[in-house]
Amino acid sequence: MARWPKPPEGSWTEHFGLGTEPISYEDSISPEFYELEREAIFKRAWLNVGRVEQLPRNGSYFTKEIAVARTSVVVVRDKEGQVRAFHNVCRHRGNKLVWTDYPQEESNGVCRQFVCKYHGWRYDLDGSLSFVQQEQEFFNLDKDDYGLVPVHCEVWAGFIFVNLAKEPEQNLRDFLGPVVSKLENYPFHLQSERRFYRATVKSNWKLYMDAFQEFYHAPVLHAKQTPPDWSIAAQQAGFEAPAYTIDGPHRVVSTAGVHPWNLEPNMLKPMELITRSGLFGPWDAPDLGYEQKDAGINPAGCDPWGLDSFQIFPNFVILVWGQSWYLTYHYWPTSHNTHVFEGTLYFVPPKNAHERVAQEIASVSFKEYGLQDANTLEATQTMLESRVLERFPLNDQEVLCRHLHQVAADWVDDYKKQHAEV
After folding, report:
1. Rounded CA gap, 27 and 29, in Å?
2. What is the per-residue pLDDT across 176-217, written as a single tens digit (0 to 9) for each?
3. Does residue 73 share a domain with residue 53?
4. Which of 411, 332, 422 is nearest to 169 (CA)?
5. Is 106 strand, coil or helix?
């Protein structure tokens, strides 16, 4: 594979001024640091909780469990079509307001109002309290004072974000910055066919993010996914992404790719040949009618172009593939050494059985690679917690890993400083 030139300074890591010394992973094994992350990061940053396609009509809603912030949020399209978010708690006795059979499970549906299962208080879709059972039994109760607790909610490019702070430090567009914001010109809305995976992972959330923001591991960890001759050649030559971008707390890695249909048949699996699909997605890609430059993708000008992975701080990834489909990843912390991983694949709705099967093959191929990436994480977590080693060297392809841990530390330090001043 061709290698693109390094930045003028000689390496990406030096170019971004991140330092080249070995780093500590104490932030991934310390319960104390995790408790600080709760307040410093996840209650201050904008968090993606879904897309507008999940709210197809007025009255549509879904809930999102955000364990790291010890809350649940209900997101709804109100009677005027506005997307709103509220803390999922009844104002009467604190019962979770919206749930189905099991309180800890997320739910979705369509309704005209929200009704508490405990005492029947009712709330309109704009969050206002509309009915109190036996209202005359209360003392000077003014329903205007007891609407649902709102959560700051903004929509960008069809992605729904919430901010749990009382007053966000930035609006969503300023938080995303120019590099990510330019993606709004990409046709996400045309890709509404959705496949969803969720798994509980026994590792810190940042360790899994690290696995998907460097490709140094690809020739080794994923070797068995390709024919032996190709795997051996890839391990000998290595793999290097051509372009890295850092913009504020966010990161992008871009890679070249291959056109599978140009490979020799013995380099492909029989199922890939039959279905014309695989890891890179369906071979017969739809024409979505956009220019890469205008959509903010493929900054290195790769030909063929493989993918761009936009790592949006703190825990959200948009991965755009050259074959006209995209993935999102979410990493939701549940403790200092566990998190919930969510992977969602988006395609243009299939027009026939061939296109449907090609999308299914891409989906199961992604799942296999995801399982391989996750397979190492518990082993990494347990040995980091042994504290036998305190510092770990990172190479230049791991520049975004270095950046993520630095940003997390900076946000925690900033929070501690503000808290100390108060």
Report:
1. 6
2. 999 999 999 999 999 999 999 999 999 999 999 999 898 877
3. yes
4. 411
5. coil
